[in-house]
Amino acid sequence: MAFLRGINVGGNSLLPMSELLTICEGAGFKNVRTYIQSGNVLFESGLSETFLVNELQQALLEKKQIELSVMVRTINELEAVISHNPFPNKNNSQVGVMFFADTVPQNLIEGMFCPGREEVVLSGREIFIYYPDGMGRSKLKFPKTSQKGTIRNINTITKLVGLCREM
Prior knowledge:
Low-confidence stretches: none
Number of strands: 8
Radius of gyration: 16 Å
Order of helices and strands: EHEEHEHEEEEH
Strand content: 15-25%
Largest sheet: 4 strands, antiparallel
Mean pLDDT: 91
Helix content: 25-40%
Structural class: alpha+beta
């Protein structure tokens, strides 16, 4: 499973999912499937995470001239994300998981700006965020970091796990 950061958001980095599917197949991914327009790609591969990320980033640059951050997770890693949700009794559409390529530095949340009621928990390569007033209303800001993350809510992650299991 790959998560692409920043496509089809606010009219930037437009990439139809049919093109993304073709790009992934051209990069050698097997049984490729996309889910919604926000850059979720399901596929099968026995290759390393680093290789997959590099292949997809290079293919996107060559075919679409866009540079994107790509985060890859296995189905087992996604299931662990769901089972380790620190907000299990909250509305799943209000719990976001920000995925990063590498372990998130513990000091990242120390410099965040949180004027609202959001709650944030770091966990390895993910940050769990509870948005009690909804993601769209949040003013939560993390400090600048060289790592770029991308966020999906628990409902989307659960759906992706189900789709992976069907493959």
